[in-house]
Amino acid sequence: MHKRHRIVAAVATTMICLTGVSACGSTSDDDSSSNSSESTKNAETITITIKGDTVDPNGKRFDLGINQPVTLEIDADEPGELHVHSKPEQEIAYEAGESSHELTFDKPGIVAVESHTLEKTILEFEVR
Length: 128
Description:
Number of helices: 2
Shape: globular
CATH superfamily of the largest domain: Cupredoxins -  blue copper proteins
Number of domains: 2
Order of helices and strands: HHEEEEEEEEE
């Protein structure tokens, strides 16, 4: 009977070890760090449309990697200014019509992009 217990214990130990090894190979931390390094190479473009009191996107969150460039393509019916609540804070002045503005963020965190004139959060970036 003791031999049977040892075999069961050996099989159970092997299964636990294999499960642990496969789990280590696919953790979300590993995936996010590889995605983060890949995302720094890929620029993101986001179109912002401002017509009267209507803004699109309206509060949507986007994922970005640290130092990943993002281009804001702004199409507005009137000139205005966006406030980027990063560290340091940034302001983006735009004219009526179409304009393009590039941003990067070198610190992780949530960055809100707002129009204080319209009192709206246009979008947020989750920088990792």
